[in-house]
Amino acid sequence: MFRRCLFILVFLACALALAAPASALNYHVRVEGKTQTIFGATEPRFVSGAARVSALDALEAASLAGEFYYHLEVTSFGPYVDQVGRFAGAGTAGWAFKVNGASPPVGADQVALAEGDRVVWYWAQFGIAGGPETLHLTKTSGRCYRVSARDDRGLERATTGATLRVDGKSYVTRAGRACLPKHVGLVRAYRGGSIRSNAAR
Asked: What's the predicted TM-score (pTM) here?
C-alpha cells in the first residue's frame, strides 16, 4: 500500500512539473512623452508567463495598465509604432525605444526581453548623431542623488547641466550630483535635449 501511494505521489509530481508554465519573466516599462511622462515614472515591474516577451509586448502591457493609446503601422520591415498618446511621429521626430539604455538595431517586435530588463519608449527628435541620451537617476545615500547619461549604445557617462526637480522646486547638479533638502514627492532629472530620467524617492 505504501509503495502504491508513493508511486502515485511521484506520478502526480512529474505531471505537475510537465504542466507547469514557463518561468515568469520580470521586466520594467516607462513611456516618456513629448512634454511629460505618459506611464511609469518609477519604472513599474511587470510579470509575464509567456514564452517570449518583446519590447513591443512591453508597450502593450503598459498601454493596458496605464489606459493610454498607441498606434501601429504595418510596414514591409514589420510593425512600427507611429503614435503614442496624442503625439504622432512626423519627419525626423517620432517614437523609439531603448532596452537597458541601448537602442537595438532591430524592430521592437524582434527584441526578446530577458529577466530584469528595463524598457523605455520615448518621443524624440532625431539628428545625424542618432537619438538623444537618456538620463538615469540613482539615489546614492540619504537625500543625495547621481545623474548619468546613456547613449544609444547603452554606454553610461557622468553628465553635467542636469537639473533635479521635486515638489515644484529645481536644483542644479554639480558633476552630476546633488543633495536635496527634505522633500515629499518623487525626484526627476531633466536636461535640455535628453530624455528625462526615471523617478526616485
From this structure: 0.84
